[in-house]
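The records we work with from here on pair a chain with its fold. These numbers are not coordinates but entries in a learned vocabulary of local backbone shapes. To see the layout at work, look at the sequence and tokens printed below.

. . .
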Amino acid sequence: MSGDSQKERQHGGWEQAALVHGGREPSGTRIQSVARAARLLLGIAAEQRGATAKELALSQQLALPTTYHLLNTLVEQGMLTKNPQGGYDLGRSVAIIAQAYLGGREVPEELLAALRALARRTGETAYLAEWRGVGIRVIASIEGSQMLRITEIVSGPYSHAYARANGKVLLAFAAADVRAAYLEAEPLERLTEATICDPELLQKELDRIRDRGFAYDHEEYAAGVSCVAAPLRRGEDVAAALGLSVPADRFNERRAELTAALLEAASAPLAAT
């Protein structure tokens, strides 16, 4: 029997004993197979094309039979699926865990402080959006105090980001592969006469947004509604997009004022995490 096989058998015996005693480990120890399975999941998550058992065994420095056993167990639990090319992709059960994690996250107080300050100063509806996994979500909003105003924006999944100021900010500052994956999943669609539907024109718009540091939506998502948004930064990273949603006629009258107020609210650096 090889040294590796003997070690795995011995460790398997420890794992079985741990289960008999209620799954508790002595202090300072860990269950090796769980750690290995977690590393495999993270390795597959890092490969958008999936990964084969041989690739995973090599990258994780595991024996190929051990890798197959772990992968097959994860497939049985719905954590992985096997693709037609013989590789492994993340399964539906991972999405359940991801959604539970994302849905349970609280909005940091410093983001809410910027949101409140902007809504209070302008009297217009202000809202926050951020990347959650591979999608974009509204995470908080405050309805404006004007007589004629945009109603509070409901928190949740955020579609047609390419036509919305907050969405364009997040797309503009996202990694190229993240942006491409989003636009592939949500092809450009004409929502109003002003919606940018040409990929080249959209790319030029996103380039302009990166250069000037903020984005406009001139009735691109909904007729009669205009928006302006800017990134909230944590160091070099964009933590969220902060925006205003305003009736188009009033926005045209107040555009310079609203843009200045937004940029001031978004200018304070966020604490590192």
About this structure: The chain has two domains: 3-99, 108-267. The longest strand covers residues 237-247. The mean pLDDT is 83. The first helix runs from residue 3 to 20.
